[in-house]
Amino acid sequence: QVQLVESGGGLVQAGGSLRLSCAASGHTIRNYAMGWFRQAPGKEREFVATISWSGSGTYYADSVKGRFTISRDNAKNTVYLQMNSLKPEDTAVYYCAADPSAGPMAPGNRYDYWGGGTQVTVSS
Fold first, then answer.
1. pLDDT tens across 35-66, in order?
2. Cα(89)–Cα(86) distance, rounded to whole angstroms?
3. Which of 62, 104, 120, 124 is deepest in the core (most CB within 10 A)?
4. Are the beta carbons of 37 and 85 closer than 8 angstroms?
5. Cα 47–48–53 angle (5° rounding)?
6. CB of 23 closer than 8 Å to CB of 77
């Protein structure tokens, strides 16, 4: 089993930045694709970003492209989401997830492990 714990959420004004971290334990995520998702109040959970286990392939939702950056440090067993130019519509609970089935350059698809989420609130 892999356990995932998100951190770094908080309250920020529009235009500000936050850096989310997802720390994995229980097993290495060296060969896992990783993803970030978010869920706003009253909304469905939506895809934000994913990174291949090699780190060479990254993919983003159109709503965050150019503003958010996903990265990973396999030596630290940690995945990051750098969020810049934040907007009120980015307000949500952010979740990280792990896909152990993907190839070295493939995005996540079947996410078997999920973190508990961290709240991001962007004020006007």
1. 999 999 999 999 999 999 888 899 999 999 99
2. 8
3. 120
4. no
5. 95
6. yes
Rounded Cα gap, residues 28 and 73, in angstroms: 11
How many Cα atoms occupy the beta-carbon half-sphere of 32 within 13 Å?
A: 27
What b-and-e string marks burial along 16-45, b requiring 16 or more CB atoms within 10 Å of the CB? eebebbbbbeeeebeebbbbbbbeeeeeee
Rg, the chain, Cα only: 14
Q: Give the pair of three-digit tokens for residue 50.
A: 């994913």
| Cβ neighbours around 121 below 10 Å, total | 15
- Please report where in the chains the tokens 């990051």 appear, as a residue: 80
Q: Specify the residue for token string 């709240």.
A: 119
What is the DSSP code string of 39-91? E-TTS--EEEEEE-TTS--EEE-TTTTTTEEEEEEGGGTEEEEEE-S--GGG-
What backbone torsions phi and psi does residue 74 show, to the nearest 5 degrees? -65, -30
Q: Is the pLDDT assigned to residue 14 strictly greater than 90?
A: yes
